[in-house]
C-alpha cells in the first residue's frame, strides 16, 4: 500500500450561472459554465485504521467531524467499494471558506482521487463522478476541472475547449455566505417580482468568447442569476462590483453564491493593479490572483 498521496484541489468560478425555477426536490435546474482557477487546496492522504481529518492551519469554520466534505467523500468511496481501509486526511486550505469558490467541493473531489490511489480501488473517472454527485452539486466539476458546461443541478457536465488562459483577481469578503440562503433569496426576489422564470440556457456570446480566447468579450458576457440575491444579502458587494471599470478590469461577477467577486483582467500585470487597488480601497479582506482554466483534482505526489 502507498504511504502518502497529495492531491491538488482547485477553486472554481461560474462564468455564467443561469438558474431555473425551484424544483420539487429543493434544487434548481442550472445552465452554468464552470471554470477552474489556479487557487488550490492540497489534500494529503495517509493510511490509517479509521477515517479522520486535520487542518494544516486551524480554522473554526471548517468542521473536523463527519460533516467535513473530505471525510464525507472518504466514507462515500469506502461504502461504494466495500473498502475497510481508513485514511488520515490533512487539508492545506488556501481557498476561502463559504466564499462561492467551491472549496469544500474541491476537497471532496481531491479526497476521492487521493483515496482511490491510496486504497488501490482504481475506479474510472465516471465511477468517481457518480460518487461525487452524491456529495454536492459542484463536486463532479471539481473532479473534471478546466472549463465545462453544467446542467441539471450542475452535475451533468460537458467540457468546453477554451482558447488561451484568463487572469483573475478574487476579492474575498470578510465573512462567507450560505449557498442555500442565497438560492432562497433568489426565489424570494423572483416571487416578489412575479415574472415567469425561463428555463436556463447557456449564452452563445460567452461560448464564442471562450472559443476565441477573447478576454474582453468574455468580460462583457459574464453573468450570474444569483448575483442580485447575494448583493441583497451583502449590500457592500455593489461597491466592490462597481469598482471594476475604475480599476481597469474587463468584467466583474459574484462567484457562484458569493460573496467573492471575481474580476477578469487583461494580464498578470493588470491583476496586480486590481489587487492593489481593491486592497487600497478597503473593498475586500484579501485579493487573490489566479489564472485559468486549470485541471481538476489531480495527484501531485505519491
Ligand atoms: C452556487 C453553486 O456553487 C454554483 O456552481 C452551486 O449551485 C452550489 O453547489 P453546492 O454548494 O455543491 O450545493 P449542494 O451542496 O449540492 O446544495 C446546497 C443547497 O444549494 C441549493 N442548490 C444547489 C444546487 C442547485 N442546482 N440548486 C439549488 O437550489 C439547494 O438549496 C441545496 O440544498
Ligand atoms: N473541507 C471543507 N472545506 C471548507 N468548508 C467545509 C469543508 N467541509 C465542510 N465544510 C463546510 O461547508 C460550508 C461551505 O464551505 P465551502 O467553502 O465549500 O463553500 P462555498 O465555496 O460557498 O461552496 P459552493 O461554492 O460549492 O456553494 C462551510 O460553511 C463549512 O462549514
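-> sequence recovered:
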Amino acid at each position: 500500500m502507498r504511504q502518502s498521496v497529495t492531491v491538488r484541489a482547485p477553486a472554481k468560478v461560474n462564468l455564467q450561472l443561469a438558474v431555473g425555477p425551484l424544483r420539487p426536490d429543493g434544487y434548481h435546474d442550472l445552465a452554468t459554465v464552470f471554470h477552474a482557477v489556479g487557487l488550490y487546496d492540497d489534500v494529503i492522504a495517509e493510511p490509517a485504521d479509521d477515517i479522520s481529518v486535520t487542518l494544516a492551519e486551524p480554522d473554526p469554520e471548517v468542521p473536523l467531524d463527519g460533516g467535513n466534505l473530505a471525510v464525507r467523500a472518504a466514507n462515500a468511496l469506502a461504502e461504494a467499494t466495500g473498502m475497510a481501509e481508513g485514511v488520515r486526511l490533512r487539508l492545506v486550505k488556501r481557498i476561502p471558506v463559504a466564499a462561492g469558490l467551491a472549496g469544500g467541493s474541491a476537497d471532496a473531489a481531491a479526497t476521492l482521487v487521493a483515496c482511490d490511489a491510496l486504497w488501490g480501488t482504481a475506479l474510472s473517472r465516471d465511477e468517481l463522478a457518480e460518487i461525487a454527485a452524491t456529495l454536492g452539486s459542484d463536486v463532479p466539476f471539481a473532479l473534471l476541472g478546466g472549463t465545462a458546461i453544467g446542467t441539471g443541478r450542475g452535475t451533468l457536465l460537458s467540457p468546453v475547449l477554451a482558447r488561451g488562459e484568463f487572469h483573475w483577481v478574487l476579492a474575498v469578503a470578510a465573512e462567507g455566505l450560505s449557498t442555500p440562503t442565497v438560492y432562497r433569496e433568489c426565489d424570494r426576489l423572483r416571487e416578489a417580482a412575479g415574472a415567469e422564470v425561463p428555463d436556463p440556457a447557456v449564452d452563445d456570446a460567452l461560448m464564442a468568447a471562450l472559443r476565441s480566447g477573447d478576454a474582453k468579450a468574455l468580460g462583457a458576457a459574464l453573468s450570474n442569476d444569483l448575483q442580485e440575491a447575494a448583493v441583497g444579502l451583502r449590500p457592500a458587494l455593489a461597491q466592490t462590483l462597481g469598482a471594476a471599470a475604475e480599476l481597469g478590469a474587463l468584467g466583474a461577477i459574484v462567484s457562484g453564491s458569493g460573496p467573492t467577486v471575481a474580476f477578469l483582467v487583461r494580464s498578470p500585470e493588470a491583476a496586480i493593479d486590481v489587487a492593489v487597488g481593491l486592497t487600497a480601497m478597503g473593498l475586500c479582506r484579501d485579493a487573490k490572483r489566479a489564472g485559468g482554466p486549470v485541471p481538476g483534482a489531480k495527484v501531485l505526489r505519491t
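The pocket of adenosine-5'-triphosphate (ligand 2) is lined by residues 61-63, 67-70, 91, 97-105, 107, 138, 179, 256-257 (CB under 6 Å).
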